[in-house]
Amino acid sequence: MKILIACEESQTVCEAFRAKGHEAYSCDILPTSGKHPEWHIQGDALTEAYSGKYEMMIAHPPCTYLSVAGAGYLYPKSILNRERYLKGAEAKDFFMKLLNAPIEKICVENPLPFKIFELPPYTQIIHPYHFGEPFMKRTCLWLKNLQALKHTNIVKGEPTSKSPWYNKGGKDRQKNRSKFWKGISDGMAEQWS
Ligand SMILES: C[S@@+](CC[C@H](N)C(=O)[O-])C[C@H]1O[C@@H](n2cnc3c(N)ncnc32)[C@H](O)[C@@H]1O
Known about the structure:
The protein is α/β, with parallel strands linked by helices and about 190 residues long. It is built from six helices and seven strands. It has helices at about 10-20, 45-50, 70-75, 80-100, 175, 180-190; strands at about 1-5, 25-30, 40, 55-60, 105-110, 125, 140-145. A seven-stranded mixed sheet has the order 3-2-1-4-5-7-6, sandwiched between helices. The structure holds S-adenosylmethionine (SAM). S-adenosylmethionine binds next to strand 2.
């Protein structure tokens, strides 16, 4: 299948689908930090998503202004921060354009969204520890024409809520924090191939 991995600079999902023999491409406004620049399209994900070239898309749109984890910034001292709200509305518009792209099979991935933005209901919630990685990170999937992911390997014990690269500082701090999970990527490639 020809597959677009939208908003992905790390190539984690792209590599998992390539390993299953698919023609997958990562696409991000940033250059890739992955090993295969020849599989990377540096540019706007919406242009690719509406190009008519792809049979499947997995998208990781920016979540900074949509996530419920940012509640403290949206309502500092219980008053709505209008500037931040407008950024959230813009992020929702991008999210919805990806979800409504003319591609048969779609998965959009994001953290739990803030209710005020009224995103459509997600299909399922997963954590990395359902897929062999000892971390807890609530991840919502919005699916179209794809089966809900089955857990592949539930890690026993108390999972930590932070990935090993979460607290790395420096210029790549934001990028490191939003890297996707190999265990989940492998589960997607295995179950959606
Ligand atoms: C939450 S991060 C997802 C990163 C991804 N999980 C990974 O492992 O690479 C969102 C990404 O969307 C990218 N992005 C933002 N606007 C974009 C656009 N219009 N087209 C393509 N990528 C975009 C950002 O550069 C960022 O890498």
